[in-house]
Amino acid sequence: MKRLLCLWFSLDGVVNRRDYLVSGVGLMAFKFVVEFIAVWSTGGWLHPLQFLDPVLLHRAQWFAQSASWLPWAVVVWTLPFIWIGLSLSIRRALDAGGGGWLGLFFLVPFLNYVVMVTLACLPSTPLVIVAKPERAEAQRRNVAAGLLAFLAVQVFAAGAFAFSVFVLSSYGSSLFVAVPVLMGVAHAMVLSSRRLASLGTTVGLGQIALLGSLLILLLFALEGIICLLMAWPFAAVLMAFGSVIGHLLAQFCRPASPPSRWVPLLLIAFWPLLAWQESRVQEVYLREVSTIIEVDAPPEVVWRRVVSFPDLPPPSGIFATGIACPLRARIEGSGVGAVRHCEFTTGAFVEPITVWDEPHRLAFDVTAQPSPMRELTPFDIQPPHLDGYLRSRRGEFRLIALDGGRRTRLEGSTWYELDVHPGFYWQRWSDGLISAIHHRVLDHIRTLAEADVR
Q1: pLDDT value of residue 135
Q2: Domain boundaries in the chain?
Q3: Residue range 286-453 in CATH 3.30.530.20
Q4: Order of all β-strands in the sheet with 407-418
């Protein structure tokens, strides 16, 4: 077992054909069995072809219907297998006499299967080990290399952002997952072109480059502070992962043939194709967010405040940052067909009534909605993701009598779609913000209804 752990997780040592094949097939089978059991236990079915499909969007429906923790568990479960596959592939490529860069293609969807089969077939070739430079030399600052790496990352990040957002009109996983990883790889490889920095230095400078990219988006009025703060934690982890990969490749690539050191950067050429393919197949699913409170007032009293209510207190807390904040609600007409207007700081929701079951249930569709937020920025901007990427579809209030009709259980629900990926990350933010809106409205209704009773 100790030998296997060293083989799988170490960065040193030779990986021959037999070890590569046995480890790859065995770990893949083990991963499939575990995931098959997990899906089967939730009432689903995981086909082997679905397991081999690297496009996670094809599993989005399963994620949407599963427990909220499951997507995160899948990510944590998958990361060690990605590291093992990458480490084995790079060292197998070196053992076969090629450059370590060949193993990096393990990260390219679909092409990785061709690479794995090829590496499992190639015979071993004697490898010349290049001595590592002295520690003092490896840690010596090289301003020119650091600046070149920083500029290279900014050029790639800006181009990827423009292509995804303005050409493909897509905020997908290719932008929020693939781009930070490739930024980390590119930064580490360019940094190593003139120096061999330590792993800690490489990761640290990569994080500085990432912050530079976010600052550029802010200064060029392309994004606001709140959205960048939401994206930063996820991007920082992926950037660090890419930096580790790039640092590993820099150690393994043969300096005897300098062009081979730049081959890993050609992987960036695959990114536009990945982004385009994702923009064609990505799907959006309807999500429900529900909030429940109890009111010390009869349903008949609460109902009047649900249908319409006067001004809420001024925005505070998270709403003071520009997030759309409810202000008041009014209604035109009565019964099914009436139109409710819920006014927010960014505009009004238009909500035709579809169910009027007084005093038990009020349901409505959403036919018009304002922007979900005003960007916190020195400039007056409207980024594309604020226009139609988060769509409220319908809502509902349910009133349930408690204690013989003296109290009320008030439930508020919103059904919405979010066209920003990966969903398991961004839906946590959108669910939380919608829940905060629910609490603001429901608490206000409770205050008014209980005052009416008094």
Answers
A1: 42
A2: 2-123+143-281, 286-453
A3: yes
A4: 286-295, 407-418, 390-402, 361-365, 347-357, 339-344, 326-332
